Amino acid sequence: MLKGHRFRSSWARAAYHKMQFDTEHLSENSRHLEWYRLEQPQLLPKELADAFVQLEQDAETEAFLENSYAKSERLLTQLYHRVAKPLLCMFMSVTSANGFLRRGSMFVLFGEQFRRLIVGSDSGDHQQQQEPLFDSLLDLGAGDGNVTSHYAGYFRRVFATEMATVMTWRLAERGYTVVDPITWLPTQPAIDAEPELDAHYDLIGCFNLLDRCEAPLDLLAQAKRRLRPGSGRLLLAVVVPLRQFCEFAPGNRPAQVLAVSGPTFEEQLASLVSNVLRPQGWAVVRWAKAPYLCEGDLYQSFYHLTDAVLLLRPTD
């Protein structure tokens, strides 16, 4: 009805566009199939096509979206964030400012989606399990811990790294052990941990960090050294298309460039595996396509990018 209408106020225009966005995504028929399905699977090598796990929007994803809609409607809170964030960024990084304001929580996988990738089955109800499936998790660049929280219950102990000081406070609030971001070791041994368990982890989570760190190839090499020999796995999430950006590096440029190319999601993924992961000694066990969701603001209820989420095992 308002198509082609010229708004006198930028606020009115933003409100109208947000209303359109919410109407589209709040539709009962909106299962966001495009977030999870492959558009051109024929472009994948056979081994990657065979390892693909088809995920779908579940109840937990819907709850995250509904909560994002509700938060974006809190006008006073959103106005406060809009004023406070630029002021805070004069003294701290964007990541720290978001952590201080408790805004912009992110999401990649929820519990059952995580289980399907890690265990390789959607059977069984983890809610009925009395014991965690694994001993230790290390989540690299864990932010405020929101992503970690959705699968932390599968582990007896949860460790995390984070460069932003404010985010380390948020992680500690959740009860996670914050470890040194360089060595990935606890600054002081856990009371109930054996020394060798402090050095090796059952799973290392690396969610949307590879394209945001200064030395991604060194990160992949260090992950192999810190995994439990024989059984340890790396869960790697990478935004596709890949665009490297390092918040804490000079000029925001990484020291190591990832040789990833291709115009489509499938071609970029194949390039990542053949040009980066395989030469670094990693093999794909299973993988999925999933949305990388972030809580929104006054202008949009949520934001999303496309992730390739890969379960990897060392080959050497």
UniProtKB/TrEMBL annotation:
Gene Ontology molecular functions: protein-L-histidine N-pros-methyltransferase activity
Domain of life of the native organism: Eukaryota
Any matching Pfam family: DREV
The name this protein goes by in its record: Methyltransferase-like protein 9
